[in-house]
Amino acid sequence: MFCLMFCLHFFLLIQKTKTMGQVLGCVQVDQSTVAIKETFGKFDDVLQPGCHCLPWCLGSQVAGHLSLRVQQLDVRCETKTKDNVFVTVVASIQYRALADSAQDAFYKLSNTRNQIQAYVFDVIRASVPKLDLDSSFEQKNDIAKTVESELEKAMSHYGYEIVQTLIVDIEPDVHVKKAMNEINAASRMREAASEKAEAEKILQIKRAEGEAESKYLSGLGIARQRQAIVDGLRNSVLAFSESVPGTSSKDVMDMVLVTQYFDTLKDIGASSKSNAVFIPHGPGAVKDIASQIRDGLLQGKAAE
Fold first, then answer.
1. Using CA atoms, how far apart are residues 182 and 188, in angstroms rounded to an integer?
2. What letter does residue 160 receive in the DSSP assignment?
3. C-alpha of 302 from chain center
4. End-to-end Cα spacing for the chain
5. DSSP 8-state assignment for residue 129
6. pTM higher than 0.85, yes or no?
7. Alpha-carbon distance 165 to 94, whole Å?
8. Sorting pLDDT into bands at 50, 70 and 90, what band is 303?
9. What are residue 162's DSSP bridge partners?
10. Percentage of residues in the chain with pLDDT exceeding 70?
11. Are 37 and 44 in contact (CB under 8 A)?
12. Where are the alpha helices (DSSP H) in the chain?
């Protein structure tokens, strides 16, 4: 019965202390962790990873453990820029406790994360108001370096090292974002309109150059056509005069023009797309037409 009572008492003692090692005076410290040893409530030593003997009957105990791993703290800080735009700056702080300064890291700060957050707030709210909104986006790295420098100086006294400081985001108000997007869109639309106008200008210039070239070539064609007609008529007159003695050049020209006149009438009648054409016809009309054609050719020749 006595043995059963002793075993029950011993089991309850183990459950209370959670580890059998502490009951027996042995403590295990995990890797990347150090333990703070106290003797009768006073700091005694920093226990490195491994197994250590702490005779609790002599007043030795573990006051707590301190992780040496890199930890991360995300801080959201609301502030305003130089141009009075409220933004939320999101900073990511990576820090760790130094093994050589484990005593300071354990005893000097009661809440490490709140302390770091307070320093981050102070530095960001002192740096960002000096910059306008666009500059704050462009100089994120400079803001991060400033925060890291100030944190390093402050936290080194408490046994902590600042590994890295990142400004991961700068979030302006939703309405400010919308306005910035609208400004960007308007600027791009203005550039697009300018480019479109420039393209239309080039098309109009090229079209005008093409029309000018076309008219120039058309003029050359008409001039050559008229010259060819005149040369052909001249050759026809000379050939007819030589073949038929006693005829004048005027008689030959009238005959050629009348022949051309009837050929034209035949072409008009044979065309499927022609409509009704009213032409004065008769001996006098033929004479007038011959006179008009002759005058036109002579005027064209004089213009050339």
1. 10
2. E
3. 67
4. 145
5. G
6. no
7. 6
8. low
9. 95
10. 71
11. yes
12. 2-17, 20-23, 102-107, 112-127, 133-138, 140-155, 174-243, 249-270, 283-303
Contact assessment for residue 96 and residue 68, using Cβ atoms and an 8 Å cutoff: yes
Contacts for 44 with CB less than 8 Å, ≥ 6 apart: 37, 38, 60
How far apart CA 151 and CA 90 sit, in angstroms, is 16
3-state secondary structure of 124: helix
Contact 254, 290 (CB under 8 A): yes
As a whole number of angstroms, the distance between CA 304 and CA 298 comes to 10
Phi-psi region of 228 (alpha: psi -120 to 50; beta: other; left: phi over 0): alpha
Residues 49-78: what's their mean pLDDT? 87
CA distance 19 to 93: 35
The owner of tokens 């130094």 is: 98
Contacts for 177 with CB less than 8 Å, ≥ 6 apart: none
**DSSP-derived 3-state class of residue 159:** coil
User: CA separation (Å) from 20 to 14, 23, 27, 36, 48?
Assistant: 6, 5, 9, 19, 20
pLDDT at 15: 45
- Considering only CA atoms, which of 87, 89, 86 is closest in space to residue 77? 89
For residue 69, give every residue at least 6 positions away whose Cβ sits within 8 Å of its Cβ, in sequence order, or none.
Answer: 32, 96
Q: Which two tokens stand for residue 254?
A: 């009238």
Half-sphere exposure of 211 (CA within 13 A, CB side): 5
Radius of gyration of the chain (CA): 53
DSSP 46: E
Extract the tokens encoding 237.
């007159």
Is residue 14 within 8 A of residue 20, CB to CB? The reply is yes
pLDDT of 71 reads 93
pLDDT greater than 60 at residue 7: no
Element (H, E) at 50: strand 50-53
**Measured between alpha carbons, how far is 51 from 241 in angstroms, rounded to an integer?**
139
